[in-house]
Amino acid sequence: MKLNKLFFVGLASFALMAAGCVKHEVTTDGASTRGASTHVSSTHSAATHSVKSLASKPASSSVYFAFDSAALDAAGSATLDGYAAWLNDHGAVSVTIEGNCDQRGSREYNLALGQERADSVKAYLAARGVSASHIDTVSFGEERPVCSGTGEACWAQNRHADIVSR
Amino acid sequence: MYRLLFLPLFFVSQLVYAVEFDIYQSDYKPLNIALMVDASPDQEKQQALLNHVIKHDLESSQSFHALNEVGFLASPDEVFKQVDYDDWRIIGADVLALCKLTEKGGLWHVDLQVYQPFQGKRLLKQSFEVKKDALRSLVHQLSDQIYQAVLNIPGYFSSQLLYVTKHGDKSDLMYMDQDGYNLQAVGTDFTLLLSPDWSPNGRFVALNTYVGNRPRLEIFDLVTGKRNTFGRFHGLNSTPEYSPDGRFIAATLSWTGNSDIHIYDIKSKKWRQFTHYRGIDTTPTWSADGKWLAFTSDRSGSPQIYRKPVAGGKAQRISLKASYNTSPVWSPKGNRIAFITKKKWEYALATMRVDGTDVRYLATGQAIESPSWSPNGQMLLYSAEEHGMRRIYRVPSWGGKPVPITAANHDASDPAWSRR
After folding, report:
1. Taking burial as the number of CB atoms within 10 A of a residue's CB, which of A152, B45, B232, B399 is the most buried?
2. Structural domain tally of chain B?
3. Model ipTM?
4. pTM
């Protein structure tokens, strides 16, 4: 009986180790996101640059997030710098920022998290001179996944905020 | 060589799934009930209905086990004249319930008697009358009476459920009796439909839907089918929850710049802000006495459950274990809170005392969501995903077997149990 229990504990801890490996990949992803968001302030040159020649509309209008986070990473900030420049050159354009989440965690909590992502993008654009009255926000939580499968590759695509002009 | 490799791997995959949560199991043994329904031969159909529905109600509570009538030692004629307790003790009947159905002046009439053979005691003798088209609802009342007479807890068999089913981009609001009968769509073609909550009087449903890609809060009238918008602010309008007296609805709004709990006064149509935290506060739930609101907040860095007096005061953290605790729902008795918890990437439905102690894990699974209490606090509904399809399950709050109550090929989420 006791031996049996030990056997199971052994297996369980092996299982935990295996699970730990998978989780490690996820956390590194999140950690790099947080680290990168510190040099956001150095990107102000993009806005000054746009004074000389009219900024073209950025190719990407989506920014991506880590699990349970609304913090912008370096790639996201770069995308938004471009977008802020374009919006500042086209003062009449109104946009809506749509926040989305992956399918993990509570759906109701994810609605709030999606909103926080949209609000975080709005705050970033507003800080770069875009009029807050031209920016609306909406959250779809995890209700409108881009990718409906499982696995980090799929979930990562679903943790995004999109800038939409209609 | 092959065998050596295969065996350990097989065990590991079994263990990974159940390793995080120790499922709470009570040592409660269902009571054996002998049910005897007597009716005249031309009422065979109604007699079968009584037999079937009462047994199904009581067994689905997992508090009773119905004995097969093949083993009964006495005939209806004998029993309805005189109950001999020995006849029932021998077959191990903890409870004996007798129903006599008659038709009187265009009404159904039922005499109900409930006995405890081992105690040699009659618990109940009562008569019921109902219009001819309402026999099924009377039968649920009989189940309620038997349940209460034996367990001293009100039954929940006359209650109803709501849930949401999604087809493509549209969602319908579904309604059914607690036993799955009477299933119908009461509201159709919503663009997203989340968090329906039943008003205490059973007439209205507060819900979150989207119109023109904007979320709003609506009150849906189950009698007229009318939809009234009561929350349409910038940003989030979500998770409406009626106060126990039906006067207020707590919900999540984000027009202030972040998600906070706000309270709507139904009579004056005025909102007031209840929480003031710069991060996320959401999913409010009222205590049974209406004096507290519990909610999910990420103020400690991860989603955790807090409570705060409705009259004002400091928010106190309740959930102590695990790094991800959401979706609190206060029990109708007020002594426990159901919630969803996550360890590693495994989710569970759990309950805890209002101080966060005595956590009981009731069910694990994929994408577990939306706990909802039965009116008597003995059962919980939740949704879980199976092979990519969401289903609604029911589990005793005291520990028991989770049982699916919606079909395997039909999407079902956001269950809401009527409050009575």
Report:
1. B399
2. 2
3. 0.92
4. 0.87
DSSP A20: H
pLDDT score, position B150: 98
CA distance B281 to B299: 8
Of B88, B119, B151, which residue constitutes the final position of a domain?
A: B151
- Domain containing B359 equals 160-417
Please tell me the predicted confidence (pLDDT) of residue A15. Answer: 44
In angstroms, rounded to a whole number, what is the distance separating the alpha carbons of residues B63 and B221?
A: 35
Domain of B114, CATH number, reads: 3.40.50.10070
Helix (H) / strand (E) element for A112: namely helix A107-127
Beta bridge partners of B316: B307
User: Is residue A14 exposed (0-12), middle (13-18) or buried (19+ Cβ within 10 Å)?
Assistant: middle
Q: What are phi and psi of B320, to 5 degrees?
A: -110, -35
What pLDDT digit, counting tens, does each position of A153-166 carry? 999 999 999 999 86
Smallest Cα–Cα separation from B400: which of B28, B22, B7, B68? B28
Residue A100 · residue A117 · CB < 8 Å: yes
Q: pLDDT value at position A28?
A: 31
Residue with tokens 């109708």: B332
- Give every CB contact of residue A162 below 8 A, 6+ residues apart in sequence: A61, A62, A97, A98, A100
**Category of B413 on φ-ψ map: left (φ > 0), alpha (ψ -120 to 50) or beta:** beta
Give me the residues of chain B with pLDDT under 50, please. 1-17
CA closest to B369 among chain A residues: A106
* CA–CA separation, A94 and B364 (whole Å): 45
* Chain B residues within 8 angstroms (CB to CB) of chain A: 8, 11-12, 15-16, 19, 192, 194-195, 213-215, 234-236, 238-239, 252, 254, 257-259, 279-283, 296, 298, 302-303, 324, 326-327, 340, 342, 344-345, 367, 369-370, 413
- pLDDT band of residue A53 (cuts 50, 70, 90) is low
Task: Could you list the beta-strand ranges (E) of B69-120.
Answer: 95-104, 107-116
